[in-house]
Amino acid sequence: MPECYWFLSFAAKESKTEVEFIEKIETILLSAVKRRMVSDVPLGAFLSGGIDSSLVVAMMATVSDFPVKTFSIGYKDEHFDELKYARMVAEKYSTDHHEFIVAPDAIGILPEIVWSYGEPFSDSSQIPTYYVAKMTRQKVTVALSGDGGDEAFGGYGLARAHYMGYYYRKYLPSYLGNTLLPSVADALVTMAGKRGRGLISKIKTLTEYGKGEFCDTFYLLMDVFGFELRDSLYTAEFKHQLSGHTPIDPLKKCISDADGTNEVDKWLYIDIKNYLPNDILTKVDVATMMNSLEARSPFLDYQLLEYAARIPSKLKLKFGIQKYLLKKLAEKLIPHDIIYRPKQGFSIPLRSWIMDNFKLLIEAILFSDRALKRGYFKVDFVRRLAEEHSSGKHDHSQRIWALL
User: Fold this and answer.
1) pTM of the model as a whole
2) Are residues 330 and 245 in the same domain?
3) What is the tens place of the pLDDT at every residue in 167-193?
């Protein structure tokens, strides 16, 4: 019978000053980087232009006798392109820098990528990850990455949502927080229509996370297809085959195991146990192995993860700032413009690609005889998603990609 030999506990917390925490993080991370630089083959690093990979490259450069080889991916669409930030780090540390522009015709590699995963996998960043791995392998055999920094130190918006939700519950009377404000937020979203939803949507999100204690349904708030859309999407036969199974079922044990003392710690544990291995690391592992490249992640050093788990969550997201402590550490090592810009994520211009370049593929795959005979999804509903996206009425890019 398999047994868990290591458990990441968030129960015990250390009491230190902010400066002491930052110094300790720097010491452990530097040691983790050094250990992963031990190699008898050429070595480099992925450099996205974000905080985590930039910190790794900065530390590699401080202990390396030769210029670090760095590799970055970009797009013609400036809203998704982060090359200018990667170049800032490359220039600061005089790295041997290499770049590749991913174009919409990257769809040609999709069949090979899908086959290599061997299972449904709908993270669209699998495409740029493949290309950065392919480019990197032309120069080195091992590459360090920044994976794990977001999960360990609170880099995602949902961690901040739980942080803000805690203060929402703490300072608002129960009736106001649980009943009145959520009703007002729902009404405002309806009234706002398609425009002017930015601030209103944030208020609604706050009420969702603030009106109740941590529960498993929070995970569905980030789901591509929530319960209501799944009900519209699935055929009666497919619903019967599922026999009541829901997307929450595989998460229930993970949720019950989380020993954090607050919602932020519980969420970080769930991300580390679920999103990190089942999405991020799966994506990187397949993409690198397709190209005979080995990826190493200093932020996933067990000593760093254990230490991060002992840091109070109120410091990780101080003032609601995601990865607050890492950003304070980064101030000593990387350009300020990189640290405090909006988080972008390693993504592709999926909305425009689906509207402009993927139309024929969508028709050929989603509405093929082979797909329809499977009987999983209602064809009229899938057709409606495609038409609403094509007309610009709704952004269904993530849903269409998942179905594809």
Assistant:
1) 0.87
2) no
3) 766 666 564 555 555 655 555 555 555
